[in-house]
Amino acid sequence: MNLEKVVFGFFVLLAATLNFGFFIGDMTDARVHNVYELYAAVAVSLIVTVLKFGDRTQMGAIHLATSLVADLQLIAAVVVWVYADQVSTHGHDAAAMSSVVSLSGGALLANLVSVILLITETVSYRRR
Predict the structure, then answer these.
(1) Model-wide pTM > 0.85
(2) Could you give the CA distance from residue 93 to residue 103 in angstroms, rounded to a whole number?
(3) I need a labelling partner for 30 at 20 to 30 A (CA). Which of 47, 56, 82, 123 fits?
(4) pLDDT-based confidence at 52, cuts 50/70/90?
């Protein structure tokens, strides 16, 4: 068993599940979307990005691209959340929350692509 692959797979799946946990629920209701779960999703996503830097293969490049997309989407979601919380006079209204959740959904799609790539890579490795 390759410990590096285990750690990589763990963080890829953790990023996807944290993002999914934040994403699920009514889009406009801030009470069902925990800000700390969003922050955790960003932190783990950034860890995954760092883990993907060492791979020089084509599959590694695609993994890195999906991770960068997820990072960008999640960071944008945090920016919108902080803006709604600290700057906007409307607070966490339906428009702000739907933007945050939509951005998180984009990151979730990128995470799902990354998981599918990981599964594909694992299946093709077993056939060798």
Answers:
(1) yes
(2) 16
(3) 47
(4) confident
